[in-house]
Write a structure and sequence with these properties.
- Keywords: Metal-binding, Mitochondrion, Oxidoreductase, Potassium, Pyruvate, Thiamine pyrophosphate, Transit peptide.
- InterPro entries: PDHB_mito-type (IPR027110), THDP-binding (IPR029061), Transketo_C/PFOR_II (IPR009014), Transketolase-like_Pyr-bd (IPR005475), Transketolase_C (IPR033248).
- It comes from Lupinus angustifolius.
- Helix 2 (about 30-45) runs parallel beside helix 8 and helix 10 (about 240-255) packs across helix 14.
- This protein folds into two domains: about 25-210, Rossmann fold (3-Layer(aba) Sandwich); about 225-355, Rossmann fold (3-Layer(aba) Sandwich).
- The chain has helices at about 1-15, 30-45, 70, 85-95, 115-125, 125-130, 160, 175-185, 210, 240-255, 270-280, 295-310, 330-335, 340-350, and strands spanning about 25-30, 50, 75-80, 100-105, 140, 170, 190-195, 205, 225, 230-235, 260, 265, 285, 315-320.
- Helix content is about 40%, strand content about 15%.
- A seven-stranded mixed sheet has the order 3-2-4-5-7-6-12, sandwiched between helices.
- The protein is an alpha/beta fold.
- The two termini are about 30 Å apart.
- It is built from 14 helices and 14 strands.
Length: about 350
């Protein structure tokens, strides 16, 4: 199973376009953003270390750790055996000691092997020790579906980890998100689950001089309004933010002005921004790749019903992945995850612009 994922990763890297970012560039890939964030934090703080499978000699399964072994050496960039429970436990122990480990999972699906350490050892220790034990650790890696990697490698863990007190859960979309949130996560005194998306690694995004500054961070727990609108609120995170923005472009041609919120942080969740938007637009569509039952969208809907029910002019629409293990076949896989047209249909239903046809997801 793991060898198949490694082969899949290598194929993506051959077809991708990793490049170093020049100081004069105004765009940055998510891959470069993550690499530079880790690099800068390791340079600024000798307590920061990177640990995981192939993070050193191979420079990361997705080349996120490119160049770091040569720069910082094997004591701070540690290649491990294929044993998530082992190196996650070592990372938590190092955090107890005062170090700041960044633990990479080749895919977050493999974090299931280490979930006891993430939840019982990392998330609960500060509370159970009455604040005497701080656990400054980041668990990061690709989350959710890629392309044709099967059900065991395609699950979204946002709702899983966001349900656990003691953890912070971040989900970057753009290069700005990746840089600012990862730097904030590494500096945070609490354990952070950092859910990236494999298909976004090679995507380029515009970045400002402020984003490229080594002191740049983003606040944990604060969403970003990617596009302002007045007719319907669309919430999304990770890759689905791009889908929501594309849907907003289509909706604009039909006279519907959608507001798109990039959640960025799943725990803590920026309920105030979401509710303020719904109170303006009076409609809500939530979008996620995860399963619908007990999902992030369900939590957002509950928050809006509790705080802003009187402002709603239409039922809340939830767009999520199908309630099935992810199919391997490409045509079925597409049907199992939200598409732009699903978001468009849901938004039109919320605005009373369409018939009764339901979204496929």
């Amino acid at each position: 199973m793991l060898s198949g994922v490694i082969r899949h990763n290598k194929n993506i890297l051959r077809s991708g376009s990793f490049r170093a970012l020049s100081s004069s560039s105004n765009v940055m890939t998510v891959r470069d953003a993550l690499n530079s964030a880790i690099d800068e934090e390791m340079s600024a703080d000798p307590k920061v270390l990177l640990i995981g499978e192939e993070v050193g000699e191979y420079q990361g399964a997705y080349k996120i750790s490119k160049g770091l072994l040569d720069k910082y050496g094997p004591q701070r960039v540690l290649d491990t055996p294929i044993t998530e429970a082992g190196f996650a436990g070592i990372g938590v122990g190092a955090a107890y000691y005062g170090l700041k480990p960044v633990v990479e999972f080749m895919t977050f699906n493999f974090s299931m092997q280490a979930i006891d350490h993430i939840i019982n050892s990392a998330a609960k220790s500060n509370y159970m020790s009455a604040g005497q034990i701080s656990v400054p650790i980041v668990f990061r890696g690709p989350n959710g579906a890629a392309a044709g990697v099967g059900a065991q490698h395609s699950q979204c863990y946002a709702a899983w980890y966001a349900s656990c007190p003691g953890l912070k859960v971040l989900t970057p979309y753009s290069a700005e998100d990746a840089r600012g949130l990862l730097k904030a996560a590494i500096r945070d005194p609490d354990p952070v689950v950092f859910l990236e998306n494999e298909l976004l690694y090679g995507e380029s995004f515009p970045v400002s001089a402020e984003v490229l500054d080594s002191s740049f961070t983003l606040p944990i727990g604060k969403a970003k309004i990617e596009k302002e609108g007045k007719d319907v609120t669309i919430t999304a995170f990770s890759k689905m933010v791009g889908y929501a923005l594309k849907a907003a472009e289509i909706l604009a041609k039909e006279g519907i002005n959608a507001e798109v919120i990039n959640l960025r942080s799943i725990r803590p969740l920026d309920r105030s921004t979401i509710n303020a938007s719904v109170r303006k637009t009076n409609r809500l569509v939530t979008v996620e790749e995860g399963f619908p039952q007990h999902g992030i969208g369900a939590e957002i809907c509950a928050s809006v019903v509790e705080e802003s029910f009187g402002y709603l002019d239409a039922p809340v629409e939830r767009i999520a992945g199908a309630d099935v293990p992810t199919p391997y076949a490409a045509n079925l896989e597409r049907l199992a995850f939200p598409q732009v047209e699903d978001i468009v249909r849901a938004a039109k239903r919320a605005c009373h612009r369409s018939g009764k046809a339901a979204a496929t997801a």
